[in-house]
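Budget justification note: compute hours in this period were largely spent on complex prediction jobs such as the one shown. Inputs:
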Amino acid sequence: MNELSFLLAPRSIAIVGASEDFSKVNGRPLKYLLAKHYAGAIYPVNPKYQRIGALHCYPTVAAIPEAPDLAIVALPAPLVAQAIADLGRRRTKSVIVFSSGFAEIGEQGRRLEQEVISVASSAGIRLCGPNCLGLINAFDGVMATFGQFAEGETPPGPVGFVTQSGAFGTAIAALARRRGIGLGYFINTGNEGDVDFVAAMRAVLADPRITVGAGYVEGLKDGPGLIALAEEALAAGKPLVITKVGKTISGARAALSHTGSLAGADSVFEGAIRSAGIIRARNEEHMLDIVEALAGCPLPQGRGVGIVTQSGGAGVLMADRAEELALAVPVLSDATQRKLREAIPAFGVAANPVDVTGQFVAEPRLLHDAIKATLYDPEVHVGIVWLQLMDAYVDTLVGIFESLKAECAKPFVVSWVAAPEAGLGALRRRGIPVLRGAEPAIDAVAALANYAEDQRFWQADGKARKALRETEAKRHVAAPASGVVSGPAAMKWLNDNDIVTIPTRYVRSAEEATVAAAELGFPVALKIESQDIPHKTEVDGVRLHITDIAAVRQAYAELARNAQIHCPEARLGGVALQRMAGAGAELVIGLKRDPVFGLVVMVGLGGIHVEVYKDVVFRLAPVTQAQAGRMLDELRGRAVLNDTRNRTAVDRSALERLISNVSALGAASGNRLRELDLNPVVADATGAIAVDWLLVMD
Amino acid sequence: MNELSFLLAPRSIAIVGASEDFSKVNGRPLKYLLAKHYAGAIYPVNPKYQRIGALHCYPTVAAIPEAPDLAIVALPAPLVAQAIADLGRRRTKSVIVFSSGFAEIGEQGRRLEQEVISVASSAGIRLCGPNCLGLINAFDGVMATFGQFAEGETPPGPVGFVTQSGAFGTAIAALARRRGIGLGYFINTGNEGDVDFVAAMRAVLADPRITVGAGYVEGLKDGPGLIALAEEALAAGKPLVITKVGKTISGARAALSHTGSLAGADSVFEGAIRSAGIIRARNEEHMLDIVEALAGCPLPQGRGVGIVTQSGGAGVLMADRAEELALAVPVLSDATQRKLREAIPAFGVAANPVDVTGQFVAEPRLLHDAIKATLYDPEVHVGIVWLQLMDAYVDTLVGIFESLKAECAKPFVVSWVAAPEAGLGALRRRGIPVLRGAEPAIDAVAALANYAEDQRFWQADGKARKALRETEAKRHVAAPASGVVSGPAAMKWLNDNDIVTIPTRYVRSAEEATVAAAELGFPVALKIESQDIPHKTEVDGVRLHITDIAAVRQAYAELARNAQIHCPEARLGGVALQRMAGAGAELVIGLKRDPVFGLVVMVGLGGIHVEVYKDVVFRLAPVTQAQAGRMLDELRGRAVLNDTRNRTAVDRSALERLISNVSALGAASGNRLRELDLNPVVADATGAIAVDWLLVMD
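Corresponding output:
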């Protein structure tokens, strides 16, 4: 039982505005409920009819003989609120509103929708919709929908599917059916007046018969809610696969910092879900490939893929793609190679990818033995078998895979190009995932490996996460004034909170500058200091590589003059003097407040190049050091942190500590912090240090 | 008629080693030839039989009554050379060798193969194979194959397909058949003893019935040959779509320069084919999506996509993907929007993407009018219509698309998710491309738009290409000595050939250094000069931002000492003094010799970051300035060349001239030049200038 049980597994269903015309929106639910043998009570409500088919039809909601668990409302929009009020009086537990004409049509509809929501809420009714296709609980024959998907077979299965879009969701469900993927639930949340994507998915995953959650998302309202749900799902070992469209959701917002301006373009969503093990699918086919693999396979214990093909080219294509997705295609052990050489013809290839050649057609045992040998290799964690056509050998092949599934504990998938329908069906009925090509197979396997890794990481990092939360609760951060914070005040705040900055002196005269430079040691940098000049280079307000006292004097004078010329109105805070940073790797570390997910921490590479390559990774704040390490691993240009031609590797743990500290500071600042940019942070073998900073408070 | 006519369209076929068992490799060609009503003469050769079916069987090749245009040889490998010798005496024009046991099995097979090749060559016989499935010319019923693909229907069509892999090629051909894509030719080139991929594709494209070439490539031998073929295809208006596996073909070669080390990983192939308008497909489905679109659509005259959907989410998914592929999703004109508002329901969306909602089910005309209005918009060059399911409305929908195809000159494709089989078939029979999802549709349309653009560009750039070739022929480049060329000699050579370098003085004492610095003007850079130290920073051999005479002296001393310590054996050429370059955009421009394609020119972005992000683009040398411009456009970080916060846009035409000059210099150097790196090249609003260089000659 969960809070949406009455909605998802009602023992009785009223249909308000039911029609005897089973082709109509308000007629179809009854048709489907009868066809799929819904076992509960059905109460059609419509004053026009005495009966619909064999069922008694009630003139009003008040006339229904019991309080229904669920009511379907299929009335014109202006009549919906009244119907829900009536249902409330009848102590109805939940309602699905099919009707459109609400928020999706503009201001007037939005007002109607608010009314519906408030009526339902005050009556204690949980509301699905409005403007939705409704839902199917296939286990219990609950066909509370008018969607096209209900027209065909809807056998229950371990996959729970929740979709914000009716049309696209229906298409995905139909594709799943074609693959023989059983959807235990199909739920379209529509306008999400009450029950939103997260709530529906949580209820679905609470059902022990569901082992995989699949979702289609167009606009997410509750980012932290999704992440909380994902963590519950991780704990329960139920993978969650999501396709989300709308990659530019928050991209348009103006922002002062790099962190702010880079936070659009989907990357916040990407980073947030990655930390919680949500699997992101590019599109509908990719989603179903992953779902099919998850539903049919145990999780791999590592990233090693063993590839068995009958075509060298397919093997190369898969190995290339595996490399792109950071899967390993390990060299097989001598023992494995020996076993393979015994099994396959001399002109085959006994290395990974294994090429068994077309010879297995004459000698099926060969394929079986080759796959088995490959799967048993200690470096192989998951197998992929590539086939094409083979119309005449379906039974043999299905037999081979069936016995392999029984014999081997390791997961494998079949990639079968131009597969005969009979072969596809037979494998899928046996719970063996079969993908339609080489690339989809690798993509699906990569999703499995990533998820398994996320799960392991999440478990291993549990203690650190807990410790971080406890520390956070104890922190008392005295935040500085609002708006752009002055350089010295920001520096003090950072230093007070365990964030190291480069030695810096703020000075107000050329004389002071020369003294400070001598103290800091040459070479030094001079930077104009003003809260009104967040981007100093724009006013030619930076002088680098200054090597002597005379040059300090001259640089001071130039900066003061430039500020005067370019920003005569700016409040000047003098000039910042810094010891020049060494030649380390340059990063940007920042914080920003995302409208959907709240406070997020960003890591990017490359100083000025961060804007060009947008090589940035986000996470919800705070992150543990280990999570920070994973962020660094996700940077495309991460190689710059390793040993390079001109530099030894940077101190990764100092960098991870810095990222974690920044994220913890942000989280502890509550809603006060708007944006923080540490740009650049310079990291080398001795540590990681912020060289410039921009802090904006609310 | 072309040079492979006897192979591709033989008027008579001998089958050497023919079997009466039609299930065997040597029996199947006869079975297929008879089944597909091959109209020419067939001569089975086998001393075991008098007759096979209704055909006379000849005991020896000598007994065949005429010189056959084509002979199929299906004998054990050791017997093949003798059979070809016999066929040669019989004046046979061409031979296909099915037999395996040649180069693919190692050294012994390689020797056998060489023998076969030389026998064929001296007899003037064109050879396809060995180790191949043979070929099909579906127009003329030439079923010279034992491949599985021949088992089903093989209706001829406008697509010519050439594959280096038998197994993978068969799978692709079978998938094409399922889509109703007619393959006029299916050719498997196998070991390519004589007829290689390029020769086969050239012969196929010479057939006027073929309008699209499709190829599957595993290992390319003749890069320039492929490019020459692609240019012929461009001139003939026949698009060429290729899937190539093996992304790491030349990646392992050691190289001194960045250009050399970055040339692996498939990027040379990518760059080379892009300049010649070859369309690269990621995998088999992507290839067929593009082929289907090309075969069914005229080419779009621009990059504007008009999207019509029944689901907002599908529209967003397509718009996102379009943006990723640099397609435009233009704002529709007021007139178009007016027309749309008349056509679609109030709760639809009359902007691009257009959402017609599910209402068209009740009112099919609405869909027709909405698509038509969108296609007629002046900014729309190609349309995509997204549908799902609609099993009950197949006839209506097919009718709509059929009349749209008749009425509108602009191309459009249908993206139909979970489409009913009847709908797919009906559209495809009418030559209307239909893709299985939103993303594949956008991907196919992008390929069309790219190809059309390549074609227009290639035509527009024809004169410049011609001029470049003429200049090249006239150039006499006196190349410097071999090995790593000294800094001053390389600089002179570059300057003599229109490549600008930063003002540089080579000096041999601290005293000379101070004089040179004063002449150049501060700040200056000092760099150790030695042919034996190609990477100066590795020996701490560079000093930048030197601002006075004393520091010059000190830097000189340090560099001399560092060279002594790190490279005591190195031949020192003193120190190079340069005026410090301004703060422009940093690029790498280089040349290298690729084993498959010959001399290629590279452009990369980002100074040291070039290695991290591998943001580089290659082309065959030489390139025109306009081609150089396209290279810059293909850089992921190209935004760095535009106006940015701290800098005005760089002088693009100076940069393009520099790239073109470098490429022309390389091309004119013949085989002498091994590697050239200009790294960095600094570009700003005033020009583009090489700041450091590494030249290696053979």
